[in-house]
Amino acid sequence: MIWDEEFESMPREALEALQLYRLRKTVERVYATVPFYKEAFDKAKMTPAKIRTLDDLKRLPFTNKTDLRDNYPFGLFTLPLHEVVRIHASSGTTGKPTVVGYTRRDIDTWSSLMARTLSCGGAKKGDVVQNAYGYGLFTGGLGFHYGAEKLGATVVPVSGGNTRRQVMLMEDFGSTVLTCTPSYALTLAEAMVEAGVSKERLKLRVGIFGAEPWSQSMRQQVEAKLGIDAVDIYGISEVIGPGVAVECIEAKNGLHIFEDHFIPEIIDPDTGEPLPYGEEGELVFTTITKEAFPVIRYRTKDISRLFPEPCRCGRTHVRMERVSGRTDDMLIIRGVNLFPSQIESLLLDMEGLEPHYLLIVRREGTMDTLEVQIEVNERVFSDEIKGLEVLEKRVEGQIKDILGISAKVRLVEPKTIQRFEGKARRVIDERKI
Ligand code: DLL
């Protein structure tokens, strides 16, 4: 169901007029209230008055994660803290977290966007939403919580973790919608088997999974194990949290970006040049309705593609392809560029392997090496050693043929690779140490 028919199915022309109006307001706001933006715009010889068409957005400078760090914690807020009713933060890999803030109206906007998101993903009033995204500074838990309440669903605010209890609650409460990271959905599926709870005993119908990259093959596995439709949701704290884009349950083909609130661009990550629809590059977002913490041309480092063709669900907003990786995720191993998601797709398309893997990159002398550890299923594991060796060689052969890189594959016993409650960490790069 389309939650907000008027805005989600707006004809392009009207949508663009609305975007321009909102963009100008946002640019005026940040220029007048945030010294960082005033300085950056002055340097680029831009003023709010120079934004006359949507195309003029391209003349504004980018905002990077380092700009948030430099203005830590509240330096990019447009309002004093007493107008800010909520703070969230995402933990970076180094140092201080990235801090974001919301006014009362921002929380309302976000909740409506999340009601839209849930509805687009196939949830509705009357559903029991088991929300296993982490509650706290992470935007996942509370973002989904407010959206599910707004939708009129019954929220179970269980947060991540305590997996066996989650399975019990899922059965006893008759949860119909599961929200968590795709890796945690797999952990839950495994715990169901351990607890002897078959998918038929559950009422689960839909899963809305995101916050980390996952492949199409992973979707198929999760859908089969849980007996549900699984859709991909994309979000990022700096832009709002979850609620930026989501697949519709009707097509499950690309994520609808809520363009009446966010203007997406794809740029060449090396030159910063905007790229046309269809080309792969780095996603950049400008928020056009946020009050406390708007961002102008925020570089996400996420790699995707935009496509404008209308969707059969009736929504007119542009779609983004599922994120295939991050510009800072790319592994370069002996000169070959490789994204973890490419290995994931390849592994999960092979018989006998489970969707639990770990990539370890090392430097031996001057040589980079890649080790791929992957669990096999019980059947393969109970096979003769010889069978395992043959399978190992087969996986190595596939990686070499398809991705052009020699890797050492180690098949490991079921349930030996770490499980995750939130975002998975599947790469250990020992070269940096
Ligand atoms: O992960 C917000 C969120 C919560 C999204 C719940 C979806 C569901 P951050 O912690 O700021 O925010 O992390 C943002 O996570 O730049 C991507 O690299 C990655 N990411 C988020 N969604 C997806 C997805 C939340 N569907 C970072 N596919 C982003 C791939 C994703 N990567």
Characterize the structure shown.
The protein has about 425 residues and is α/β, with parallel strands linked by helices. It folds into two domains: about 240 residues, Rossmann fold, CATH 3.40.50.12780; about 90 residues, ANL, C-terminal domain (GMP Synthetase, Chain A, domain 3). About 30% of the residues lie in helices and about 25% in strands. It has twelve helices and 21 strands. The strands form five sheets. It has a nine-stranded mixed β-sheet with strand order 4-3-5-6-7-8-9-14-13. A four-stranded antiparallel β-sheet has the order 10-11-12-15. β3, α6 and β4 form a beta-alpha-beta unit. It is globular. The chain starts with a helix and ends with a strand. 5'-O-[hydroxy(phenylacetyl)phosphoryl]adenosine (DLL) binds next to α6, β7, β8 and β12.
